Amino acid sequence: MVFTLGLRHTFPLWQRGLALLQFLVVQTSFASFRAVSKKISVVRSRWYNSGMTTIHEILTAAQSLPSTERAQLIAALWDNVSPADWVPPDAQWVNEANRRSDAYDAGEMTGAPWAEVRERARRKAGLDG
User: Whole domain around residue 55: which residue ranges?
Assistant: First the structure.
């Protein structure tokens, strides 16, 4: 679950997350990018040649990629999605986001710096030992 303070606080958080993802993708060397592109092409070829047509089959194949390649695939896919096609959040998410935003605005909860949030998330995910 993604933690957000509220709808009006969500966009800056997503911008920071996207900027981090873009930074990580840009930091990948060109040779590595070519290798990933080639591997994605092979996976894509297997999807089409094997008759893989469902989202579940494609997702299962994508999940078999190493983490760095999945991040690159996410960036590549995200760049090809029009904002008009974005799926709106469900009512439960909107209610929770509004509740947190109201609590933040009322001083009942505080925010944390992005570096601290990122560090906690990386630790929880087991990415920082």
Answer: 7-124
Residues of the chain with pLDDT under 50: 1-7, 29-30
The token pair that represents 101 in the structure block: 């935003």
Which residues contact residue 128 at a Cβ distance below 8 angstroms, ignoring those fewer than 6 apart? 119, 122
Q: What is the pLDDT of residue 59?
A: 87
pTM over 0.70? The answer is no
Domain count, the chain: 1
Distance of CA 112 to the CA centre of its chain: 20
Return the SS3 of 79. Answer: coil
Measured CA to CA, the distance from residue 18 to residue 22 in angstroms comes to 6
Does the residue 76 lie in any domain?
A: yes
What pLDDT score was predicted for residue 3?
Answer: 46
DSSP sequence for 43-64 = HHHHHHHTT--SHHHHHHHHHT
Q: How many other C-beta atoms are found inside a 10 Å radius of the C-beta of residue 69? A: 19
